[in-house]
Here is the input.
Amino acid sequence: MVMETATTLNGFELVYKKPSTLTDTPFHYCPGCGHSVVHRILMEVIEELGIQEQTVGVAPVGCSVFAYNYMNIDMQEAAHGRASAVATGIKRILPDKFVFSYQGDGDLAAIGTAETIHTVNRGENILMIFINNAIYGMTGGQMAPTTLLKQVTSTSPYGRNKEAMGYPLKITELLAQLPGAYYVSRQAVYNVNAVRKLKKAIEKSFAYQKLNRGTSFIEVVSNCPSGWKMTPVESNVWLEKNMFPQYPLGDIKTPKD
Amino acid sequence: MEQEKISKNEASQSGREVRLMKGNEALAEAAIRAGIDAYFGYPITPQSEVLEYFTNEMPKRHGVVLQAESEVAAINMIYGAAGAGGRVMTSSSSPGISLMQEGISYIASAQLPCLIVNVSRGGPGLGTIQPSQGDYFQAVKGGGHGDYHLAVLAPSSVQEMADFVFDAFRLAEKYRIPAMILADGALGQMMEKVILPEEGSLPKMQKPWATTGKPNSRERNIITSLFIEPEKMEMINLGLQEKYRQMQSEVRFEEFALDDADIVLVAFGLSARICQKVVDLAREKGIKAGLLRPITLYPFPKDILGKLAEKVNFMLVVEMNAGQMIEDVALAANGKCPVYFKGRMGGMIPSPEEVLKELESLVEKQSVSQD
Here is the structure.
């Protein structure tokens, strides 16, 4: 009989386990969707930093509306677009706690644009996570503010044309201009290397929050296999080919000190 | 009015501070004394003095004040801060309160205590900055989407602008509901003597449901208004309705010269002050008029109105709108006496003389029909 130790389980070597900061509820996300990876990375960081007790999260309206079912921390569910205002309210009452908001592109960059800009402009001392998959996933694949030109969605069935529908909004670059933004980064979760980089960015953001440095803003350029009508593999290929040229990965604003 | 019965001397003997203040300032000062943790607001006439008072006073005393980018942001900051366990408030005037309605519905569903103050003005639309009671329906029937109510208090003096802050927080925290003070531009702008409530005299409650960070000793706390299964959503609704049923015990009203009255004026807020004068003028002419002033607009004092309807000749509802509270008065009277209406709209305030004229004409008509 094989003795079970911290590094073996049922005779297998234990190389990874679900962080205790995730609940046992199975994710409802579509196969291949980036949300579940971002949830896991975020919760891993919270577990590793030992800040479960000091963290309050805010979920948006969109596919991640049920984020609080998976994240084993205190959370609030905000109205569509208002996650950063709700996070502001929490942070102002609990300035010593870690607060993050988690929003999609429609939530953060369309209906919630005013809240987004003003939260960052105040340098609200929170982490804002922005999942950009260029589509409204939950409502069935409509055009988002970040939808690419010529991209077909259910409300741009002939492709997004700039004359009638305007341009994909690069809100992250826009926010980086604001003095309240302390750390602004664009990451992804389409391969292992990208996941590691995202984790580093989240770790840094919580470190800055502890030091009261201002707003940390992380965009995650992600996919939507269902909304894009692709297999998960196809969606990752499309992501690299079409999304990354428009939304290039990497740090956009890093602290000077 | 009640506060006039207490002389400055009596107040200072009791150790309470007396000041001459605007209604908006008295409201803000009372809120600081009620120990609010945060105020979030956006400027709008005729209540901007509330935000100005907080931005001036709070840095010197205690609490967080934040000028939001919109009323939409302000009410959602309230949601977050109330959910985090804070004693929080916002204020605005009619168009701004309309903007907040989505957030208020979420707050009602998530069952968060907070105070929302509407120093209302004439509408619809951008309307006028003059006082109005045109937001009665919006305040007492919910206002946003879904089945919910706020506890609604209607002050009629600067003293009550201060006192009702405490009463509103008591109701909000006891029932875990949003409470509203429904005032108007005149009450916000007028200056009167006010005996200020004592600092720290409103005890803070434990809020074990608040999102303050999850210790190992408890399950995570979630503040949400999303209950996707209809069975669960109905249970939440049944719970809310049960709260509203229990809240009926919180009904408050003021009676004025009702003992021998055979005609009852019904009015709230500023209109009730006008109607006190009307009662005096009517009595000088030998008309036995009295006044019932609802203080809580929700829960509504329907029982007392039902009882009065059985013994009076008629009721005259006076409002600064097109006739809103009259619907609740008529429901309470339930056909037992005629219910008439006199109102002005769009920021106009009825004079005691014009209400008296209406009253006299109704008395005249009634005596003709009785002959």
About this structure: Residues 254-370 of chain B form a domain with the Rossmann fold fold (CATH 3.40.50.920).
